[in-house]
Every structure is written in C-alpha cells, then in structure tokens.
Write a structure and sequence with these properties.
Elements: E1 2-3, H1 17-24, E2 38-44, H2 48-54, H3 56-65, E3 70-75, H4 86-91, E4 97-100, H5 127-134, H6 137-146, E5 151-158, E6 162-166, E7 180-183, H7 185-191, E8 197-200, H8 206-212, E9 217-221, H9 223-229, E10 237-244, E11 248-254, H10 255-260, H11 263-294, E12 299-301, H12 305-323, H13 327-346
Parallel strand pairs: 1-8, 2-3, 2-4, 7-8, 7-9, 10-12
Antiparallel strand pairs: 4-11, 5-11, 6-9, 6-10
C-alpha cells in the first residue's frame, strides 16, 4: 500500500476555525454530570459535502430531539484526528464517537477486514442490513468488539457500491495495471492482484492528487459520491463493473461515554442511526441510476462480463484466505457463502446471474 505524506490538517485550506478550535481542546473530556448538557465530539469518515447526506441530518435530528440534554458536535474527515487513528482516539477518550468502516479506522478486531468493501460480499445495499439483522453478523460484531476495551460498536449499515472513477478509460483488466488508485485497505489489498497500486491519503487531498497526476483513479465510491464531492470534475470515466455492491460502515462510541448516556437518549441515538441507514438506502439507489443515465461529466465504460468473472472468481479465493485468519473470520465467510447461495437460489429479483 503506497501512502502519501499527510500534511498538517490544521494548516490546510478548507479546515476552518471551528475545526482548529476543536483540535486545540482535543484532550478535554466530554461534559457530563447532573444538570449539565452531555456533549460529545463525533468524527465521520466523510468530507463536508458527503456528510451533508450520510450523517449530518441524523445528528441534527438527534440534537434537536435531545432537547438540550445532549449535544453532538460533528467533525468531518481528518478534522480532529486522521481517519486511520480514529479507533485509538475514540478508545482513549480523545473523541467520543465515530462513523466509519472498521477497516479504515484500523479497528484491532479480526472482523475489520469485512468493513468497507470486502470484495463481492454484497450485490445490493439491502444485503448489508439483512446480513447483520437476519444472518447473525450483529452478534459476531458485538462479540468481536466485546473483547476490546474502551469501544462500543453500535450499528452497521450500507452505503454505495465500489466503482472505479479514472482519468483514462478502463475497458479491460489490462487497463488496470499500474493505476495508482485511492481505495480502502482491504479492497486495495485485493486489487493488487490485478496490478492496481493502492494509495491512501487524507480526504481533502484526493481532488488535488487527481489533478496533479499523483492519482490515476479512485475506487472509493459509486457515481453518486463522485458527483457529490467533486470527483466527477477531475475524472473522465466511470467503470460500471464494481467489486462490491455496497460499502459496510458502522457507528462506534467510547464505551465509558456510551455507558454514561441515559437510556432514553441511547434509544434516541439508535433511532437516529436507523434514520441515517434508511436515508442512504434511497439516496444512493436513486442517485446511482440517475447519474449513470443523466450525468454529463463522466463517460461510462465496462469490462466484458466473461473477463470480469475472473475477478469474481479470484474474490472467492481471497475469501478463503481471509477465513484462515481466525475462527471468527471463518464464521463470517461461511455466512457470506450461505447468504449468496440463498440469493442465487431465490433468483430474480434477488440475483439475476
């Protein structure tokens, strides 16, 4: 994995005084106690434009409904803590809550590889909540995080599929070779099998890196995000093949902070997480189709199905390798295989091929 040096986020354009002030008091504890408003600092993986959809409405609703009893201050990608350090910052109480995937925040659990884009684990966004709520992943995640001190895993949900947005057209697997691509850790690990060079860098640097040629492409989202955050302005092509039909992300909290929250506010927060999960289901589903058919900034390309099948077949080998890493990983892979077999047997509209 190639890593670009991260510049001081407080000095970069686009991070305002509010973020600087938040960072300056980063070590201050959350406010708790009788007759005092409970105050949390929460950081999302998303930049400001994307956060307007994937998290801010839910947090705004929570703050309004909490009626002064609790207030969550929301920070965007890398504003207080680099994304890769979010887990440790939350664990030691530097921040109170996080919205991200397990993989990106370097969660020290064996199931972290299944967060983000685990290749071909999902065909559609509805697959994620079904796997967690009906196939036992909720219990496995609770078990895994229960072994880690200081962090409470709260809820998982689905985001968009993982497609390539690139400067040059991708019409075959050969075209992927040597491409420097911003992507997620486990997805990048898988894509190296096809010659892709995975790159990590702060959210706010991506657009500039595309313009300067430090990056050749992005495999971090679907087309909805490409347009929403401005990546469609610095890429020319969108590959319709994807390596996963949905991103799997979660909400987390510092365990002590969570335990100090009254039950009625815990219930309110859970409802707001569910509202966020629901909103993303329709926002992405509609956006992906609309921008493929009506978007004017990116030209669609495709790798032939028979060639792309080699990528899908390689993913199954990758699954088996991950299953060997721990008993719990093997249990997750077993569930994923059983789920895919059920969907295939069910046929249309669950699976078309």
């Amino acid at each position: 994995m190639m890593t670009l040096k991260r510049r001081d986020f407080l000095k970069k354009a686009g991070v305002g005084a509010a973020a600087a002030a938040g960072a300056a008091t980063l070590a201050a504890p959350a406010v708790h106690g009788a007759n005092k408003t409970i105050k949390w600092r929460m950081q999302t993986y998303a930049g400001p434009a994307l956060a307007e959809h994937v998290i801010k409405p839910a947090i705004d609703a929570f703050n309004k409904a909490a009626n002064g009893e609790m207030e969550i201050e929301l920070y965007f990608a890398d504003q207080l803590v680099p994304t890769g350090e979010l887990f440790r910052a939350m664990q030691n109480g530097t921040i109170d809550a996080v919205q991200s995937d397990d993989d990106s925040i370097a969660a020290p659990v064996d199931v972290s590889v299944f967060g983000g884009y685990f290749p071909f684990a999902c065909r559609y966004s509805l697959d994620v909540p079904v796997l967690f709520n009906q196939y036992g992943l909720n219990e496995i995640w609770e078990e895994a995080y229960g072994e880690i001190e200081g962090v409470k895993w709260l809820s998982a949900g689905a985001w968009d599929p993982c497609h390539f947005a690139t400067v040059d057209p991708i019409n075959s697997l050969e075209d992927l070779k040597g491409k420097r691509v911003f992507t997620f850790p486990t997805a990048g690990r898988f894509l190296t099998r096809f010659g892709v060079v995975p790159v990590t860098l702060p959210w706010e640097d991506i657009e500039v890196a595309m313009q300067t040629g430090e990056l050749d492409g992005i495999a971090w989202s679907g087309i909805t995000e490409d347009y929403t955050v401005g990546w469609a302005d610095v890429t020319n092509y969108f590959l319709t093949n994807n390596i996963s039909g949905a991103w799997c992300g979660s909400f987390f909290a510092n365990e002590d902070r969570w335990n100090e929250v009254p039950e009625h506010l815990k219930t309110l927060f859970k409802l707001c997480m569910d509202s966020s999960h629901y909103y993303r289901q329709h926002w992405y589903w509609g956006g992906e189709a609309q921008l493929r058919t009506q978007g004017t900034k990116m030209k669609l390309t495709s790798i032939p199905d028979e060639e792309w099948k080699t990528v899908e077949d390689e993913a199954m080998k990758f699954w088996d390798e991950i299953a060997e890493q721990s008993d719990r990983s093997a249990r997750v892979v077993k569930i994923l295989k059983e789920y895919q077999a059920t969907m295939a047997k069910a046929g249309k509209p669950y699976r078309y091929s």
